[in-house]
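[job 0412] stage=fold_complex status=start
inputs:
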Amino acid sequence: AQRVTQPEKLLSVFKGAPVELKCNYSYSGSPELFWYVQYSRQRLQLLLRHISRESIKGFTADLNKGETSFHLKKPFAQEEDSAMYYCALSGGYNQGGKLIFGQGTELSVKP
Amino acid sequence: GAVVSQHPSWVICKSGTSVKIECRSLDFQATTMFWYRQFPKQSLMLMATSNEGSKATYEQGVEKDKFLINHASLTLSTLTVTSAHPEDSSFYICSAPKRGDSNVLTFGAGSRLTVL
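[job 0412] stage=fold_complex status=done
writing structure:
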């Protein structure tokens, strides 16, 4: 079955500290993985996707097929990074955008 | 570009009444839209895939007769919560695949439904 697991409901760090938001997935084929972010009072938006292999707002995520993980990392957290982060999985282009979301992790960056 | 608009942003209704939520793609056409339900600080649960000109595809456990979906045009999908009950109170979010990249979704701002 397709499943996305984010084990941490809340992650609290101090400004300048490294951050790692964990995401593990279960999928039988070759999925595409995403991180979406929801800032306070804003709509959900794409942060990054594994096929882009780029850094957005200092965040990176590497797909590890052996560990079926797609952890989100940032070396130095900023207060404006505080938000809800959702890891999501798509079965590929034949799924036409159908995403399965993890439970979400609330990141709180304290000054 | 690629803006999805939802209306209303919040609605309060009495038990037993029906509520319609609209989802519009403002500057692009969407043959497919997705409806999600979100509980406070919890995951988004995919409810159904709305298909323009044909029946919606519902996820397991979602009542078709309870959550009526209509996708009558390339820019509008509607979700009607029929005979609403307090347990239907939730945040409903629609999304549409980005033009030219069907795996990236553009989300609406969501509609908060409170059933009294």
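[job 0412] summary: The mean pLDDT of chain B is 91.
[job 0412] exit 0
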